[in-house]
Amino acid sequence: MTRICFYLDTRTIRSVDVRDVDAGNPGMGGTEYLFFLVAAHLARTHEVAMYVTHDGAFPEGMTYHVVPGFPEAAAAMARNREEMLVLRESEIWPNRRHLDRMSQPVLVWAHNYSNHRTLRACAQCPKVARYLCVSREQYENLRDEAVFQKADYVYNAAVTRNWPLDPPGAAADNVFYMGSLIQAKGFHVLAKYWKDIVRAVPTARLHVVGSGRLYDRDAPLGPLGIASPEYERWLAPHVTEGGKVRDDIIFHGALGAEKIGVLGQAKVAVVNPTGVGETFCLSAMEFGLMGVPVVTRNVGGPVNVVRNGVTGILYDRESDLPRAVIGLLKDEAGRRAMGQSAIAHIRAQFDIDVVIARWETIIREVQAGLAATPDYAVTGGPKGLKEWNRKLKRIPFLRWLPSIDYWTHAARKRFHSLFLKPIRNLRSR
User: Fold this and answer.
1) What whole-number distance in Å separates Cα of residue 185 and Cα of residue 302?
2) Most buried residue among 142, 205, 306, 341 by CB atoms closer than 10 A?
3) Angle at 212 between CA 206 and CA 216, to 5 degrees
4) E-state strands within 17-166
5) CA-CA distance, 414 to 417, in Å (whole number)?
6) What is d(CA 340, CA 327) in angstroms, rounded to the nearest whole number?
7) Closest CA to 197 of 327, 343, 312
């Protein structure tokens, strides 16, 4: 039995009740919820402790230590003789000196895409035993980074037994969006095309599950009460008429376990229309469990969650979104077939028992001092250039080559400083 500990900054979720973690996400960020869910299930076979920055209503079966921050947590972990630490990627760079002095191996759980500073720190820190991605796509895209030698992936999970085996399906033409109402999650793209969808299907209604406060309960909201003031100004031309929210758009706010009943009203779901920053997409998984076909961008983690043309539709251009939604609303037989396939796919791949078995394998490997085994297979997408770059870097005098993502980021930053920033400065005068 391994002594495993998790460190999590809980200051933004201290008011959320997560005691019944198996019932589903009670309305917090997916990263925080998965920390509690996986820790609670690992606690059934291991001694698990969670080091948190604020007390709260947390699942039973684990030991909780309230600490001011990571330095204090690291000291307490040493005193308590913890044997393994699970830490989110955002904690690595600020705490790298403390990590260097730790005796425990560290599993970095990367729910988000890391910047290159963090990736280098993980590659160079001897205490980091694994850099764990949450999807195969996220993992493969690291292939020409140094951290790939430590990388692996384990999918996010749901307790599928708490979801209906045979959802009844929706009678009304309801389109659902679920996610945080922030620019990064792309709701504005769906909002922009909503009038086109209603024009083709006049009975369509848009239901929005989420809030600008999903990641921070204290975040300020605009006059509509749905998102930040700045983002609401961006959304207003598309979601309001006469200063009020359109009659065909319903905002539900952030929902907890009760969302299972609400999601059952959906015929079609749209998640993160831009695909930006999606390492997995919990919303796509939950809609799939309700037998609802998902429409989203053909990039990143959703590629592993949504099977294009089988459980939903992945599009390459944002302008393809309305056609995909309209097509599904009008094709009842195809939509139902996709929904049934989605249920089977999600239950087979992402059930908590399947995912915990994968965690157990990784824990055993780290305990035994085994290094990660990189998988260089290319399963799709524009990864060929990265694979060539990885092979070039095996040549001794070319090991200095940066990754493709590093070059891309540097080029975008340079373009912004040379062209976009001066133009914006001129417009602001």
Assistant:
1) 13
2) 306
3) 145
4) 47-52, 63-66, 84-88, 106-110, 128-133, 151-153
5) 5
6) 18
7) 327
Q: For the chain, first and last CA: distance in Å?
A: 65
DSSP-derived letter for residue 279 is S
What is the pLDDT at residue 366? 97
CA angle 155, 160, 161 (to 5 degrees): 150
Query: Can you name the residues that pair with 86 across neighbouring β-strands?
Result: 6, 107
H or E element, residue 215: none
DSSP state of 112: S
In percent, the amount of the chain with pLDDT more than 70 equals 95
Q: Which residues of 54-77 are buried (b: 16+ CB within 10 A; e: fewer)?
A: eebebbeebeeeebeebeebbebb
Match 């792309």 to its residue by tokens: 186
C-alpha 38/C-alpha 59 separation (Å) is 11
Residue 203 has pLDDT above 70, yes or no: yes
CA dihedral 129→135→141→145, nearest 10 degrees, is: -10
Residue 218 has what DSSP assignment? T
The answer to whether residue 209 scores a pLDDT higher than 70 is: yes
| Upper half-sphere CA count for residue 233 (Cβ side, 13 Å) | 2
- Angstrom CA distances, 4 to 51, 79, 133, 322, 359, stand at 11, 14, 19, 46, 12
Domains located in the chain, CATH noted: 3-159+352-367 (3.40.50.2000), 162-349 (3.40.50.2000)
Whether 186 has a pLDDT exceeding 90, the answer reads yes
> Does residue 191 carry a pLDDT above 80?
yes
Residue pair 208/181 in contact (Cβ under 8 Å)? The answer is yes
Contact present, 295 and 356 (Cβ < 8 Å): no
Closest among 122, 127, 123 to 106, alpha carbons compared: 127
- pLDDT, tens digit, 9 for 90 and up, residues 1-21: 799 999 999 998 988 999 999
